[in-house]
Amino acid sequence: MSVKELLGYKLMLAFEGTTPPPRILDWLAERPVGGFTLFRPLNVASPGQVRELTERLQTAVSPQFQSPLLIAADQEGGQLMALGAELTQFPGNMALAAARDPELTRRVGQAIGTEMAALGVNLNYAPNCDINTNPGNPAAGIRTFGDDPALAAQMAGAMVDGLQSAGVAATMKHFPGKGGAQVDSHFAMPLIDHSRERLEQMELRPFRAAIESGVKLAMTGHFAIPSLTEHPDLPATLSRAVMHDLVRQELGFDGVTITDALDMGALTQGAGQIIDIIAATRAEVDLLLTTNQPEVQERLYHGLQLAYSRGLVEKWHIENSVNRIFALKQWVSQQTWPDISVIGCAEHRELEAEAARRSITLVRNDAGLLPLRLASDAKIAVIMPQPQDLTPADTSSYVKPGLATAVRQHHAHVDEFITTHPPTESEITALRRKAVGYDLLIIGTISASMQPEQTALVNELLALNVPTVTIALRTPYDLTVYPEAKTHLCTYSIHEPSMAAVTAVLWGKTPATGKLPVTIPGLYAFGHGLNLNPESN
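The chain above was modelled as a monomer; its predicted structure follows.
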């Protein structure tokens, strides 16, 4: 095979459809490829369908090309679950960090990996190794292990161990760390102006831990970091100083590097995109993560070949990358596909419940309201917004509001109020009028610290002086915008197990044992968490 043809192995393709479209089957018969990324809205209908899809892709590869295919997904847990609701809905990284148990994290990683392997998905774009040092980061939040580098490093290593023990390659992302970003790189390029010393003390520590655990891939971050690149407008993805000198030579990573999605606003789009692809290749980034536009995939494939013909990409750039990709494919080929019956099995459901239960953090109980002791005829109003995707790296919109359902397991008289996200002024007015007729309000918020409308709703309801419990259902910073709340908890997840876990704490059925994995600015330090012993009440 010619060097030009080898360039196909650098592409991670995507497509729309629950079965491979003809153009993809033609590609697999005629050209090499690294593999495919599966996306929930594009490719996922059921576990059985996904397994059939991955089997069909693997068998369609021409014998002349290196196999198996790398088949990847964003199965992070928590807010980003790319492979569907039938898989076990584990809480995400921040919830696991709140539980403070690396072995629990390893077990969750192993379970996630086992279920992925049962679908024929052999590469997970996880764990997220960013440190959430900016509470206003629009895209990190609960996808991270928090803001403490030591804890994040411990948890990142454990997650890598768990995933790869199940035969699924783990990916540390977004190198070299974009937790401090002010904007979402899906839409614009963040500038992270940390010093080299700061990076060593904070951002790089989880990546070092992942490398020590043998992580197979490193995903680049599309953000500018001048202390490393010397350019305020150069994405780290395209910088040899970052993607070769730092991650390979200094940190000793010898696995496969992969870009974040190439359709993000932080990178050049349109015809000029090939310039960025050439720059990434020259920086020794191995895999290029495309999305599902056929014309873009063709442009990149042929553009890379032309770049090689014109001497813009050297033979050694290509061969070094392809050798690393082949080594990863060889590792994948040695793994097995478990039976599909492991998906959502009893053991995993028990682990799902344990992880949710151990993450619940009681931040404030100033009114002594907990554990709840209500008259049998007391009326409870449960209020929360309709979950929606707050970033393209989000599957929250697939989750049905479940807080009221969980409350009804403990009390008979419960009314549910689901607001739009964000709530409208008319909704706020109506809820303020209705809330005075209840004995208890339970209000769930989803990143209210970044949404003034949710903030207004909660503060208006708190002013009514009806006994109220507030629950941060996503990022734990919401208390900063309604600090008058007297009873407050964090779940870090909107999935059903976390709803069941938090309501069990409210009624004193289980203890609250989670500890904050971040600082809540101006209010509570990292590690804060009240103990509520159910046996003493």
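The mean pLDDT is 94.
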